[in-house]
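Progress note, sequence design subtask.
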């Protein structure tokens, strides 16, 4: 009887094996058929497909595929948009040697946000003058010492994220004869500092997008000041888009401030009406403080479907993990996520990974850049990287007693969820953390090739 059962078991096992083998063979055949069909496409159509992709992805997929596709990538005249915001150190070195340096005349757009890359001697930022057809240069997280060399050589568009008043004091006088499109995020800057920068730099501006935060200077909401500045130093301005967030200190202690939208009386002169520039102001109370946001209305404000969003900033403090998962289910194309903080109250690391919604978001989201401005514990990091397994850049705060354990977890080669991670920014770090982190990496050989940099109170690691 046992022999009969054993024979039946072996028969079932053999049957399962044959099925698996058949499926594997069929899958391989389909894959070969797909590759064959793709290779039969004409060059013109393949170039159209290339045009729909990030060129770094084109390089990764086709550069070493075979001789034909190698030549299509190398010998093409299609313009290249270079995005170096989330790229590892070793990958950058290959990409720079194979694509950027040999194709300087094909590069039309260059985007950098990795703070360490500005100091790299092989960075394309040091040979901008050789990019003769460069039309758009986007710089995030750049120090003012680099701007002194870069700004005079810019062409028509400038995007600078998080520039503070202290940075402008280090900046020289620039002559930017071709700069017409400007987008700025100002931090802790007063109106006079901004005005000085405008006089020197923005004479030819046609489009100005500006966001001001952490500034207590009420002059940013003064219509007369703006009118005088624009007429005197930005006479060609066609689009003026502003968002100014201010904290209002009043004698009202009842805490019952009502949220309301109100038009701005002093922005209703003929100067503003003629240019069709309209504004409103929203008041609200948060954390026992009165806030006001002055912002542009039509034609700049647009409501777009959640599925079209690519960047999500959540100001809720703290945001429950379950609510975050619900939100991400509605925004499948987000690639950049910024959280003020995240709450894990009542969440268990092992059980949450069995949650169906967690698994769905984890498998389908395309988020590569995550910022969590609140302190992260090891457990919170484990959940974050399990939820965002395609993460390439992480910005967060860490507790001093968790520094080594958290960094060790993120750099472990056996950690499948951090395979794509290549950049870590630690906010509000202590100066001694630089030495602690370097000692950890060297003593445990966690990284072979990396760059570690401390700026102000922030620590940056790129590998």
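Output:
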């Amino acid at each position: 009887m046992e022999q009969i059962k054993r024979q039946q078991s072996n028969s079932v096992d053999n049957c399962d094996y044959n099925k698996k083998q058949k499926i594997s063979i069929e899958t391989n055949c389909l894959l070969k058929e797909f590759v064959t069909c793709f290779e039969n496409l004409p060059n013109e159509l393949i170039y159209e497909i290339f045009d729909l992709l990030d060129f770094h992805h084109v390089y990764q997929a086709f550069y070493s595929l075979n001789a034909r596709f190698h030549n299509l990538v190398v010998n093409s005249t299609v313009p290249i948009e270079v995005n170096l915001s989330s790229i590892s150190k070793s990958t950058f070195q290959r990409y720079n040697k194979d694509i950027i340096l040999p194709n300087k005349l094909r590069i039309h757009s260059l985007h950098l946000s990795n703070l360490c890359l500005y100091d790299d001697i092989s960075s394309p930022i040091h040979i901008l003058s050789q990019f003769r057809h460069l039309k758009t240069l986007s710089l995030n997280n750049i120090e003012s010492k680099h701007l002194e060399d870069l700004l005079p050589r810019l062409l028509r568009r400038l995007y600078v994220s998080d520039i503070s008043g202290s940075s402008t004091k280090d900046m020289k006088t620039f002559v930017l004869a071709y700069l017409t499109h400007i987008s700025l995020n100002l931090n802790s800057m007063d109106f006079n500092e901004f005005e000085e920068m405008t006089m020197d730099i923005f004479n030819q501006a046609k489009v100005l997008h500006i966001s001001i935060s952490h500034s207590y200077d009420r002059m940013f909401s003064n219509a007369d000041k703006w009118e005088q500045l624009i007429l005197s130093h930005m006479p060609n301005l066609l689009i003026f888009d502003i968002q100014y967030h201010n904290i209002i200190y009043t004698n009202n202690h009842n805490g019952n401030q009502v949220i309301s939208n109100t038009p701005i009386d002093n922005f209703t002169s003929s100067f503003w009406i003629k240019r069709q520039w309209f504004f409103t102001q929203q008041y609200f109370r948060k954390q026992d403080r009165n806030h006001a946001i002055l912002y542009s209305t039509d034609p700049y404000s647009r409501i777009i479907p959640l599925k079209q969003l690519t960047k999500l900033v959540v100001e809720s403090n703290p945001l429950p993990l379950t609510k975050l998962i619900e939100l991400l289910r509605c925004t499948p194309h987000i690639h950049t996520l910024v959280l003020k903080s995240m709450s894990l109250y009542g969440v268990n690391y092992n059980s949450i990974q069995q949650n169906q919604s967690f698994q769905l978001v984890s498998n389908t989201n395309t988020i590569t850049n995550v910022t969590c401005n609140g302190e992260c514990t090891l457990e919170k990091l484990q959940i974050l990287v399990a939820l965002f397994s395609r993460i390439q850049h992480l910005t967060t705060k860490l507790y001093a007693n968790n520094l080594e354990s958290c960094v060790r977890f993120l750099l472990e080669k056996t950690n499948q969820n951090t395979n794509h991670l290549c950049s870590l920014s630690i906010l509000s770090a202590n100066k001694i953390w630089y030495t602690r982190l370097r000692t950890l990496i060297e003593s445990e050989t966690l990284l072979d090739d990396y760059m570690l940099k401390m700026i102000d109170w922030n620590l940056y690691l790129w590998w």
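The chain has three domains: 27-78, 142-302, 307-462. Work on this subtask will continue into the next period as scheduled.
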